[in-house]
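Practice problem: predict the structure.
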Amino acid sequence: MKIRPSGRLAWEVQRVKTCRVSRVFISGVGVLSPIGLGRDAFWSALTDGQSGVAPVTRFDTSGLERNLACEVKDFRPRDFMSAIEARRMGRCSQMAVAAARMAVRDAGLPADELRGERTAVVIGTTMGEANVLDELEQAWIHEGDKAVSCQKIPRYGTSLLPIHVARSLGTRGIVQALPAACAAGNYAIGLAGDLIRSGRADVAITGASEEAAKLQYAGFARLGAMAPDRCRPFDRERQGFMLGEGSGMLILESEEHLVRRGGTALAELGGYGLACDAHHITRPHPDGAGSKLAFRQALSSAGIEPHQVDFVNAHGTATQANDPIESKVIGEIFGSRPAVSSIKSMIGHCMGAASAIEAVSCVLTLQHGIIPPTINYENPDPDCDVSLVANEARSTQVDILLNNALAFGGYDGVVCLARPDILPARPIRA
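Answer:
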């Protein structure tokens, strides 16, 4: 027997059914990438199809059979923070703080709007301060525990990334580190949006940061995952990715907060989907099961249908395993309609920061009506049958897009972004 609510309870149920979900807008972005520092330099290089590949300079690659990567160039921490701040952080945190400060400035957020408990900081990564860990390990292994620097120990720890950002900006709200492998950026963005929708924050500083270190480089070299010369997503002759690094940060605000302070929305965070393949530590599920689920969750949470999606920013690692499965999933869900591109062909695979830097690119695509190209594409692969934006940027209006991220262990994360006021107002389901 169904019990129908009456009186006050009936009124509350009706109110919940008709209450509009709090909208979450992106008001600022900041980025440090292998092809440019700051949104303007980054966007110019992306749309020109510039490659960030160069010989590795930050560590010795002899004996690793590879010597190329996509490193962040010309990054000087003192351009973004004091000497004292820089000394207490590792490079990964330095990049996170620098990108966060860029994003705050881009959003036009005054300091007093950030201070206090209503601003959250949610940041993803894969390994955090990998170089600090490497230095500590090398000292311990080769010289014993007495050689381990007590001054370096406090600089290590994945959980420190959001703490450093919060401390540098004076925020006092929720802080969260998400070590969700190479989908960490999308995980962070999605969950930061939830903090705003649930009323636990008015503003969220979110994204991801990652530094390239010998520790990861050697591991990917041993796995045979890195290409010898260039990254060629969806190309028949692809040989893997180029290791990258960097940081991408976004400012999320509730609609109410943005309107109250007179801010400008660059894009809307429509929704997201998270899932797990639960299949293999390094390979995607052969049917893309988790990826399909994440895509469908993102569509459902944004209140849209597949035919409304104009562009899919692909994970596009240029590995033999990833690209055909990702293409299969996109084809099954969307058909041939949406354009597809992978900027990893230019910036490399920035690990935990990948989808966050790509989210910045997606915001700029919505703003400027330009889809960055997948460079190095020469040989079509029948197993990668997608509508690829190949070698040259494409000028076209993009209203709604999805940013896809996949990761070791089966992490799947998809974020929906749209131009402001394109997405429907969605009622809360009772």
